[in-house]
Amino acid sequence: MVPEQNALLEALQQRHGRELQERFTAATVAICGLGGLGSHIATALARAGIGRLILIDFDQVDITNLHRQQYKVTQIGRCKTEALAENLLEMAPYLELELHCIRITEENVEELLQRADIICEALDEPEAKAMLTNRVLEKLPGKYLIAASGMAGMGSVNAIQTRRITERFYLCGDGTSDVSEGMGLVAPRVMLCAAHQAHTALRILAKEYEV
Amino acid sequence: MVKVNGKNVDIAGKTLSAYLATTNYDCKRIAVERNGDIIPRTQYEETILAEGDVIEVVSFVGGG
């Protein structure tokens, strides 16, 4: 049986404190890309009681995603936005969701992200990551952006870091481990980078801006 | 001197695009901040680096 909304909220308030939970509940976070990074960022933020998530990905769940992304074999072939929404609502049934099964382009960045307080960049291609970063910092200067670069392979967990590049731009990852070189993405290391991004979002909402 | 990613480089007076041309950066994979502000991609050619500028070039690698 699904608990009442108030019961779940009280449980979150017990963990986070009333004031902090109010900030989490009032927040809207956009997650751009729902792969190894984005599906884990979304899971962490849904569990933490973020009020509203904007989920954006053009892709469908593939058999090659299952080793590192928060999907199930029964969801192969479905839009990642819909599959992830289904999974998140099993953990956080009162989470508000806005789903966009669409590719993010220079032209639609502002429209897709204008309602977000915080934007997580969780795309795959370096050109797309750079495009989104440039566009958000240029056109949406009031937003916080948490991007990621370098989390592939079997490198040390301790190489994954969060840097504050400018006042509203954070960058997580080791900066160098490219998925196109070496062995690709390995679940725990991608999760670790996603955890950096998700926790940075929570810290921003807690007004803890330093890394 | 201009500080680029924490290192002093003798490029004051050069344009950003002239400096980037001397590096291995792929312009499609980077974002550049100067003194805490993003430099729009369309302005790399006209942005002249000044003495004391602090530049951060973020170069993305793939994976996500």
What do we call the CATH homologous superfamily of chain B?
A: Beta-grasp domain
Shape descriptor of chain A reads: globular
Structural class of chain B: mainly beta
Let me know the average pLDDT of chain A.
97
Distance, first to last CA of chain B: 36 Å
CATH topology of chain B: Ubiquitin-like (UB roll)
CATH superfamily (homologous) name of chain A: NAD(P)-binding Rossmann-like Domain
Please count the beta strands of chain A (DSSP E, at least 2 residues each). 7
Give the C-level CATH assignment of chain A.
Alpha Beta
- How many strands, which pairing sense, and closed or not: the largest β-sheet of chain A? 7 strands, mixed
- Major interchain interface with per-chain residue totals: A-B, 37 and 19 residues
Number of helices of chain A: 7
Task: Label the CATH architecture of chain A.
Answer: 3-Layer(aba) Sandwich
Beta-strand residue fraction of chain A = 15-25%
Question: How much is the average pLDDT of chain B?
Answer: 97
Largest sheet of chain B: 5 strands, mixed
How would you sum up this structure in a few lines?
By secondary structure, chain A is of the alpha/beta class. Chain A has seven helices and seven strands; from the N terminus they run ααβαβαβαβαβββα.
Describe this structure in words.
The complex is a heterodimer of chains A (211) and B (64). Chain A has 211 residues and is an alpha/beta fold. Chain A has one domain: NAD(P)-binding Rossmann-like Domain (Rossmann fold, 3-Layer(aba) Sandwich). Chain A has seven helices and seven strands, in the order H-H-E-H-E-H-E-H-E-H-E-E-E-H. A seven-stranded mixed sheet of chain A has the order 3-2-1-4-5-7-6, sandwiched between helices. The longest helix of chain A is centred in the C-terminal third of the chain and has 19 residues. By secondary structure, chain B is mainly beta. Chain B has one domain: Roll (Ubiquitin-like (UB roll)). Chain B has a five-stranded mixed sheet, with no helix packed on it. The termini of chain B are far apart. Chains A and B meet through helix 3 and helix 6 of A and strand 3, strand 4 and strand 5 of B.
